[in-house]
Amino acid sequence: MKTAAILCLLTAMILVATTSAHAQAPVQSITIERGPCLGACPVYRFSVSVDGTGLFEGRKFTTALGKHGFVVTPEAWAAFQSALASYRPVGTQEIVLGHPQCKQMARDHPSVSVTWEGGGRVDHLSFNFGCRDPENETMGRALADAPDLLPVADLIERIRLEDGEFHGRN
After folding, report:
1. Dihedral sign, Cα of residue 54, residue 58, residue 64, residue 67
2. Is residue 84 helix, strand or coil?
3. Which of 42, 83, 82, 77 is nearest to 63 (CA)?
4. pLDDT tens-digit readout, 105-129
5. In a 3-state reduction of DSSP, which class is residue 166?
6. Predicted pLDDT at 24
7. Is residue 37 predicted with pLDDT exceeding 70?
8. CA-CA distances (angstroms) from residue 67 to 54, 57, 59, 84?
């Protein structure tokens, strides 16, 4: 019994230490890559750094195709990083078909990949918007809305719809 209590205490301490290290890992850059769907969903990639510089690459069905530089204010960087911070895994997490958080899958939705770099780490989250499990709703909304916090929103699409869906280009 005493050994079990000590093991539980040590496990809790390691978990707290890991969580604290995770929460305090500084972010130098964030990259978002949006994948295709079975329709005309925007396909793009952009990176933004703590110094305020960014690079957007429109690949398909975006308002702006090709590479475009952009600049963000320190306030915009802080808001963007903060909006994504709670979804930063330690290492890699892929919430796609077959993951415990992806029991309800709509196969025609786009995916998004987010990569955080900094603090000597690279952390990566992949999420398919077709994973419609209720516990994904808040995360899905945050991932879909994050580009709206930066000047890339107009490079992606002028008209935004609900649930991460996008209107075709005009």
Report:
1. positive
2. helix
3. 42
4. 988 899 999 999 999 999 999 999 9
5. strand
6. 58
7. yes
8. 10, 4, 9, 23
Instruction: Please report the pLDDT score of residue 144 as a whole number.
Output: 95
Confidence of residue 4 (pLDDT cuts 50, 70, 90): very low
- Within 8 A by CB and 6+ apart from 155, the residues are 44, 56, 58, 62, 63, 64, 68, 70
Confidence check: pLDDT of 137 > 70: yes
Look at residue 10 in the predicted model and tell me its pLDDT: 39
Q: Supply the Cα-derived Rg of the chain in whole angstroms.
A: 18
Ordered structural domains, the chain, with CATH: 29-156 (3.30.1560.10)
Distance CA 169, CA 150 (A): 20
**Region at 118 (left for phi over 0; alpha for psi -120 to 50; beta for the rest):** left
The rounded distance, in Å, linking the Cα atoms of 50 and 133 is 33
| CB-CB neighbours of 22 under 10 Å | 16
Burial class from Cβ neighbours inside 10 Å (0-12, 13-18, 19+) for residue 98 reads: exposed
CA–CA separation, 154 vs 160, rounded Å?
10
